[in-house]
Amino acid sequence: MADASITRTRILNACRALLESDAGAVTRMSDVAKAAGVSRQAVYLHFKTRAELLIALTRHIDEVEHVEERLVASRSATGLERLDAYIEAWGAYIPVIYPVGQALMAMAPTDDAARLAWDDRMNAMRQGCEAAVKALAMAGRLRAGLGEKPATDMLWTLLSVRNWESLVQDCGWDQTRYIKDMKALSRAYLCAEIIDA
Amino acid sequence: MADASITRTRILNACRALLESDAGAVTRMSDVAKAAGVSRQAVYLHFKTRAELLIALTRHIDEVEHVEERLVASRSATGLERLDAYIEAWGAYIPVIYPVGQALMAMAPTDDAARLAWDDRMNAMRQGCEAAVKALAMAGRLRAGLGEKPATDMLWTLLSVRNWESLVQDCGWDQTRYIKDMKALSRAYLCAEIIDA
DNA sequence: AATACGCTTGACATCGTGTCAAGTTGCTGT
DNA sequence: ACAGCAACTTGACACGATGTCAAGCGTATT
User: Fold this and answer.
1) Which burial class, exposed, middle or buried, applies to B24 when counting CB atoms under 10 A from its CB (0-12, 13-18, 19+)?
2) Strand runs (DSSP E) across A45-115, as ranges?
3) Cβ-based interface (< 8 Å): residues of B facing A
4) Per-residue pLDDT of chain A (197 residues; tens, 9 = 90+)
5) Which domains does chain B have, with CATH numbers?
6) What residues of A are in contact with residue B28 (Cβ under 8 Å)?
């Protein structure tokens, strides 16, 4: 996929490292170049724009971290188990893409390409939610009176990167606690289950 | 509060109007000036920076829209009613501050002043969540095994502007539906209530 | 030895924010 | 009536970041 020249990969890795360390600070093209031990223009030779670099980075991370494999697993389960599996898989992946995601979200308001790319990803994520909801409906576990559309909307919203950020980053929650409570919350909303300690 | 010269108010109103109409697009200082029928520098005479303008705008909106009054109402209620009242009051206020909030959030990653100001507001909002949770605890309605801290964290997260944005703006939800479901979701999480259609 | 490729160097355009200095207008107090 | 002040205008400029352009340089391939 794409080409994988030495320099290109170094740039991607440097960019990733920067985004992961400087959590919060803005990573400039010149920073990336410096960190990759390459000239600023070399970066532009491989990526036309900053948005393109970040987008390529998400794909790069997807490959290196095997997103597909992670998410495919949840696809074999049915009913409630499928929901749990999906929340586990996606929830565990959030911290991995979070740094790039944050950078993309930050530039989304001003950069169309970045916005489209991120929306696209979130749309793909929504498919997973929709599938989980459908699996629930199939098993007759979807709460009475709850349509598949609003169910998907809410699940998608609950599992958003921003909610993970709020709980884990801002409130200092444990990743395990986050997963556990998201499962409970989703079940409560989708299946009208009671949440027990 | 602050001074209220004609020009200053015109700038604030113009800025607000722009943010409300151009939903999404970036509002530049020159745009604000043009819309207010004033020179760009006049804007800088009243507000040292863009962040300061936006922050002043939030306060201006708070005054004009009577946030205090709206939120104070919820403070007299107790137990479950207090939670409902708070969600109603805050939920109804989100669409009002959303345009400015969006602008502030957009510049938060690169602008310390903007970030601090927005964090401050969200902190104030958190107080409301905390108080609602305390009222619940006081009434013995807080779910067994749920501490006040995680309860507040989750309520705060659920009621975030971004979640409202996701459901109402992105998914096209009705404001009433948003309020209704947020109440149900909060009760489910905080009080282990079942959600019934 | 010639060529092509990948990278470097350094200059430059653009855009938005924020600053500065000098000029204009209109209101105020005496 | 007039000096003086405050608010606003005009136009120029610095800065930081992105993105572009052109020329040069080293090295592997043929």
Assistant:
1) exposed
2) none
3) 24, 26, 102, 106, 109-110, 143-146, 150, 153-154, 156-157, 160, 162-163, 166-167, 171, 173, 177, 181, 184-185, 188-189, 192-197
4) 457 799 999 999 999 999 999 777 889 999 999 999 999 999 999 999 999 999 999 999 999 999 888 888 888 999 999 999 999 999 999 999 999 999 999 999 999 999 999 999 999 999 999 999 999 999 999 999 999 999 999 999 999 999 999 999 999 999 999 999 999 999 999 999 999 87
5) 6-47 (1.10.10), 63-191 (1.10.357)
6) none
